[in-house]
TrEMBL record:
Organism: Psychrobacillus vulpis
InterPro entries: Acyl_CoA_acyltransferase, Bact_Acetyltransf, GNAT_dom
PROSITE patterns, sorted: GNAT (PS51186)
Ranges where the N-acetyltransferase domain occurs: 12-153, 156-289
Lineage: Bacteria, Bacillati, Bacillota, Bacilli, Bacillales
UniProt keywords, alphabetically: Acyltransferase, Transferase
GO MF annotation, one: acyltransferase activity, transferring groups other than amino-acyl groups
Protein name in UniProt: GNAT family N-acetyltransferase
Superkingdom: Bacteria
Any one Pfam family match given in the protein's UniProt record, by short name: Acetyltransf_1
């Protein structure tokens, strides 16, 4: 099998997206794994997303046999990527070719770092990354809960972000995540500039104590960057944000609320489980060794 790789920038065209979806559908049936989210398929036509796709074609049939997508989600030149090869075309070095082309493109773009995402059960992907010198960095759970009407406490107010509270939101992000002030500013800018995202602020007695970003993603609502200032923890702030998100998803006619959490974050996992979130799948993150 002779393979040709080509790189295209995001957003991609509709015809290429259909090719990718067809490959993923075939692969999902064989592997019993859903690659749609990990490859950011629903975002590949988004003009506001920065990144690229590397496509591998069989020269004889002109058929797509491999796809790698890499996204720079916050426009900091830090890329997250994942790849899938058609089951019938595996063990032919296509995965390695995709990664080599990615590496070349990241160098041209001046990328600061890259992280590879692999489903927990994708053993072939793990072995390929190990062969290429990547090492396990951390793991995440994707969790989901049903959208529903929930009773909210009147003492905790959740409202859209206001620029006049930027310094307070930065303080929350620095306290919760250990971000630098500049990293917090970049996260705020990303969430207020992306059309499918809304940055929320959480107020208790006229003081900003938390924040979260809400992402509109077709059939589901995502909660990301949920942060509570360390001085306000243990007061039900995170639980209120999660219940508010269930209300919001219900209002928008979406059946589910999704979120990601690192597997070793026991405090957050406990909060999410109590709020009715259940693990959908696990993802491993790898960095260059």
């Amino acid at each position: 099998m002779n393979i040709s790789c080509m790189t295209i920038s995001i957003p991609i065209d509709v015809d290429t997206l259909e090719e990718i979806k067809e490959l993923i559908q075939i692969t999902m049936l064989e592997d019993q794994l859903n690659y749609t989210s990990i490859l950011s398929v629903d975002e590949l036509t988004d003009y506001h997303l920065r990144g690229l796709c590397v496509l591998a074609y069989d020269d004889d049939t002109d058929k797509l046999v491999g796809i790698l997508s890499a996204v720079d989600r916050i426009a900091t030149l830090d890329f997250e990527w994942s790849a899938v090869v058609l089951p019938s075309a595996r063990r032919k070095g296509i995965g390695e070719q995709l990664v080599m082309e990615l590496t070349r493109n990241l160098e041209l773009r001046g990328a600061g770092s890259d992280l590879a995402l692999v489903p927990e059960k994708a053993e072939a992907g793990k072995q390929m990354l190990k062969k290429l010198g990547y090492i396990h960095h951390f793991s995440e759970r994707t969790m989901a809960a049903n959208a529903e009407k929930k009773e909210l406490t009147s003492k905790i107010e959740i409202s859209p972000y206001s620029i006049i509270n930027e310094s307070d939101i930065i303080e929350v992000l620095v306290s919760a995540f250990g971000d630098t002030v500049e990293e917090a500013r970049e996260l705020i800018a990303f969430n207020i500039q992306s059309p499918n995202r809304r940055l929320m602020q959480v107020t208790v007695e006229d003081e900003i104590v938390g924040t979260a970003s809400i992402v509109d993603d077709s059939e589901k609502l995502w909660v990301t960057a949920l942060a509570v200032h360390e001085k306000a923890r243990g007061k039900g702030i995170a639980s209120t944000i999660l219940n508010w998100s269930k209300n919001e998803a219900y209002r928008l006619g979406k059946p589910f609320v999704y979120l990601d959490v690192e597997t070793d974050n026991e405090d957050a996992l406990s909060v999410y489980k109590r709020a009715g979130f259940k693990t959908v799948h696990h993802t491993n993150f790898y960095k260059k060794g």
